[in-house]
Each structure stands twice: as structure tokens, then as C-alpha cells.
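Worked example 2:
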Amino acid sequence: MPDTIFSKIIRGEIPSHKVYEDAHVFAFLDIGPLSRGHTLVIPKQAVARLDELSDESAAAIGRVLPRLCRAVLKATGATNYNVLQNNGALAHQAVMHVHFHIIPRFEDGSGLGIKWGAGKLDPAAGKTLAEMIASSL
């Protein structure tokens, strides 16, 4: 995997406002925040997409992500937030290193803006698709 800005942050080659670090996870403030307290949570394992992440790294993020959300809420006074994780350029991933955004939401409207163009799931097509996904596990 190519060296990314996140790999350089983990190694300390690029400064960051670190909020958490352990053997598998690094978290720091986003330098282009959507709101006050916008925090990035990244695995130290250098892979681009969530489906490439090892079970060990995924479990480490899963253990710390709720704790980091609580800390961001407490520090900022926010009571609502989004957790965003994108995979691939078409999904708006800009840095090709797995990362989760914790984005506090405030009454002033700052935070993540989302347009959700929901469709409708056909029951027969849904049954078939669910079976295909389940058999792929």
C-alpha cells in the first residue's frame, strides 16, 4: 500500500493533535473539521478499505470507537454526532487508509450534511440478495 498522510501521522513525521493511541489505533483531530471536535480514528494497519482490515485491527477499533465518541461529546458539549466511514473514491474516500470520522452535531447546523436518497426494496429481490450475501460469508 502506498504511504499516506495518515501513515506519516502515525510515525510522527507530520504533526497532529493526538487524542488517543494504543498498539492498534490512533485518533486525532481533523485539520479540516466539519465541526468543533471532528476526530479521525485510524488503524495502525495500513490498508485502504474496511474489508481489507484484519480482525484484530477491526476489533481494536470497535473497542475504542464508543469510548472516543463519549469523550468527544463530553469535551465539546455536543449531544448528537455522526460516525462516517468511506471506502473507495466513488464513496468519497480522500485518504486511502481506513479511517472513521466522529463528527459532532450542533444546533448551529455545523457537522455533516447528508442527503439520503432512499429507494424501495422489492421483497423478492431482497430475499434473493440477502441469501447471496449470507452465502458469501
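The chain has one domain: 5-136. The longest helix spans residues 55-76.
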